[in-house]
């Protein structure tokens, strides 16, 4: 990132910042000197608040609790950022959720809830921030997908569908917004040592590692370097792309 210019840029929103990959991205950006962050969380906040305090930052000034499937709550995130920092610079949609169920046992509500948590949330957040990005002719949107959007996986048809939808959403937005100097890219993650993997049984975790060419899970801090690149000046010609970080699994 352009460390010497960071404080003159607008704010970056990170959804799902309360834990997992989102929390790691917050740490990466703070360590890089970017201090205009708006960190969305839904319920868990202990780790996020602790991280902010380590950087001598007040959680009340940098973190906001919001439900991303509620348009009014999403608007509150933008309003929060504007009050604190001015214009927006980037939106990083990390938030997501899943459950485990075979498709023929899956309820409509379960399917819809996972679709909303992963796809609708990314759409609503993008919709909220795009008008301002268009008016200033600049912006960065990074949406998070998954390797299972490309490979599928047993017991998560709703999650696979949602994450595939995120890829399609990003592709469409990249075409709609390119003439306004707004880039939209997707990061498709493999299996990492934080987040949803904690809900997977230990035998299945070992099986996943065995099938991954690098033979381990990714570490959360291995995502931050890519995020800094996409946010930076060197990525101004990079849009509509899917970046895979999965240890060679796909």
UniProtKB/TrEMBL annotation:
Alphabetized UniProt keyword annotations: Membrane, Oxidoreductase, Transmembrane, Transmembrane helix
GO molecular function, one term: 3-oxoacyl-[acyl-carrier-protein] reductase (NADPH) activity
The organism's place on the tree of life at top rank: Bacteria
EC number: 1.1.1.100
Top-level class of the enzyme under EC nomenclature: oxidoreductase
A Pfam family: adh_short
Record family assignment: Belongs to the short-chain dehydrogenases/reductases (SDR) family.
Protein name, per record: 3-oxoacyl-[acyl-carrier-protein] reductase FabG
Originating gene: fabG_3
